[in-house]
Amino acid sequence: MSISKKIEQALTKHVEEIEIPEEVDQRVRQAFIQFHQQKETNKMKKKLIVFSIAAAVLIPTGVFASIGGSSYFFNKEANINGLVDNGVKQALSEGSSVPLDVKIKDQGITVHFKELYTEDTKILIHYSMELEDGSLVPYVFDTTGLNVRSDGKENGKQTENPTYQQSGLEGFNVLPFIGTDKKDNLPFYLTDSAGKEIETGIAEKDKPEGVIAFVTSGTKLPQSVDLNVNINRIGTMTGSWKGKISIDVGKIK
Fold first, then answer.
1. What is the span of the domain harbouring residue 130?
2. Which residues have C-beta within 8 Å of that of residue 167, sequence separation ≥ 6?
């Protein structure tokens, strides 16, 4: 059996078994039929169209419409490394996140933790870095004295972190927006009730607002953990933003 035939059968099976609104169901089926009536010469283009239809079937966005917009985790920018997946969104739609209002202030800048979501092996935290008027800290960098390799700008606007060359070393360094004096360069980390750092993968986009994600390799997180914050620079401003937030994983779940 050809690959395209297998794809067609698999998609047909999904269309028949997945419960989605009738209106969406009809649109997807019509698009699927129209695709197979087309005579395309580019096989790769055919595959891309098929997979886009599959996505429409398998990820009906209306499922989460009831609270879309009430949680930052529904923002496309929040889906860091694919960790805010449909399973997370389904749980969020059932009210499984916890609102936070924890603030660490210095130098006129507030590190504000706003929302928390946990699973056995995952913790997601929504944060923002705010000026005194509540607006976000500008996404800008001070590269004075650095041998800049790329300023990270497009059309004069900062779109990513600058990179620079360090004398005597191969490769290049990335200038972080959120700086720390920790040797591992991680401004956020988890510890258990005994103060021991918990081994997790850590992901965050290093922007004025976003999601910090902690994920274990499969080991369940302790029932009680602390989020540790150790920041000594935000953008162009140096200071001290340090603190600890206790998270009762068991209670939240």
1. 72-139+177-252
2. 147
Is residue 104 a contact partner of residue 83, using CB atoms and an 8 Å limit?
no
Strands 122-130 and 209-215: antiparallel
pTM: 0.71
Tokens of 77: 């920018």
Residue 123: count other Cβ atoms within 10 Å of its Cβ.
Answer: 22
| Residue pointed to by tokens 């130098």 | 107
Which residues are within 8 A (CB) of 189 and not within 5 positions of it... i.e. 6 or more apart?
182, 197, 198, 202, 227, 228, 230
pLDDT tens digit string along 146-182?
A: 999 999 999 999 999 999 998 888 888 999 999 999 9
The per-residue pLDDT for 252 is 66
Separation of alpha carbons 14 and 52, rounded Å: 14
Residue 41 lies inside a defined structural domain of this protein: yes
Separation CA 14–CA 16 (nearest Å): 5
Residues 27 and 131 in one domain: no
